[in-house]
Design brief:
hydrolase, 2 domains, 8-stranded mixed β-sheet, 15% strand, Alpha/beta fold hydrolase, globular, alpha/beta, hydrolase activity, 312 residues, AB_hydrolase, 8 strands, Rossmann fold, AB_hydrolase_1
């Protein structure tokens, strides 16, 4: 037994060393991926706001989800928006965007408008994704004259667990090492945390989208300030919004098996928003895996016609 101890120690040491090298390599690649993006910066009274400006045509502004940024915002809509110009800013505290002192979600909405002014865009369509719901809805409430349409995808609405601040200990996970370890050593658990239901991915396309979406939360470190703001300020903020006062044509898209944001809460929000259209997906979870064609069709029809109603 005594003779085994050096062998076991060497084995564990080698395994730990290999894991550390892989961690460093993966995080280095994540930083390189972000640095390779053609990120632009607008100066607002709230500080710097970085953004991606991709494509051509009618513009749509993306309010990204938690742990994302301009990169995740762009990736989230690339398969469903079609041939449009995508303006994907990093919200407060994400990547190269500032976190103003005592920031509010209303401030974020006003910062969006300042970005539109910089870009010379009098009106745009907008999409709020997951934790980006609050800022997108505030934009519609505060500046309805700047929006043609509002889309909420996998939204965090009153009545959803995501609209409640998590326990303080949850912040312990808000860093690269624990999330990287989960991704590498417990991928099903990590995927579940990101809103993927059991039984997914279902095929090559789902697996590709899932991998890309999971990769876009890394590196975590330059997103932590924004993620904490989302979890403890932005998500709970939606509980006090007067959804009945929304006057921008609104489409809500949500999967029934979303394990993060409540489907029932999204439907209830749709009933409160005047003339909102609700598109319920049978499956796909928070990332709406396997639903690309249906979502693309629904979004295109909504943006083209502006007709409102309710559909399942």
């Amino acid at each position: 037994m005594t003779g085994l101890r050096p062998v076991l120690a060497a084995a564990f040491g080698a395994a730990g060393g290999a894991a550390l090298l892989r961690y460093r390599r993966d995080i280095s690649h994540a930083y390189a991926r972000v640095e390779a993006l053609d990120r632009l910066t607008a100066v607002t009274r709230f500080g710097a706001m970085e953004y991606l400006d991709h494509g051509a045509g009618e513009a749509i502004l993306v309010s990204h989800g938690i742990f994302h940024g301009c990169d995740g915002g762009l990736r989230s809509v690339q398969d469903t928006i079609g041939t449009r110009r995508v303006i994907a800013p990093s919200r407060f505290g994400y990547l190269g965007s500032a976190m103003p002192r005592d920031a509010s979600v209303a401030d974020q909405a006003d910062a969006f408008v300042e970005l539109l002014d910089v870009l010379g865009l009098p009106t745009v369509d907008a999409i709020g994704i997951s934790a980006g719901t609050s800022a997108a809805v505030q934009l519609a409430l505060r500046h309805p004259d700047r929006l043609r349409h509002l889309i909420i995808s996998s939204g965090s609405f009153p009545g959803s667990d995501t609209a409640q601040a998590p326990p303080e200990w949850a912040k312990l996970l808000y860093s690269d090492p624990p999330l990287w370890a989960l991704k590498r050593l417990a991928r099903p658990v990590f995927a579940r945390m990101m809103g993927v239901p059991e039984g997914f991915p279902r095929g090559v396309d789902d697996a590709r989208v899932l991998t890309q979406m999971l990769d876009t939360i890394f590196p975590v470190r330059p997103r932590v300030t924004g993620a904490v703001f989302d979890a403890y300020v932005a998500n709970p903020d939606v509980n006090d919004y007067p959804l009945e006062e929304l006057r921008v044509p609104t489409l809500i898209v949500h999967a029934a098996d979303d394990p993060l944001a409540s489907y029932e809460a999204a439907r209830a929000a749709g009933e409160r928003i005047p003339d909102a259209r609700f598109v319920g997906l049978d499956s796909g979870g928070h990332l709406q895996l396997g639903q690309t064609q249906r979502v693309r069709t629904a979004v295109a029809a909504f943006l083209a016609s502006g007709e409102l109603g309710d559909t399942r």
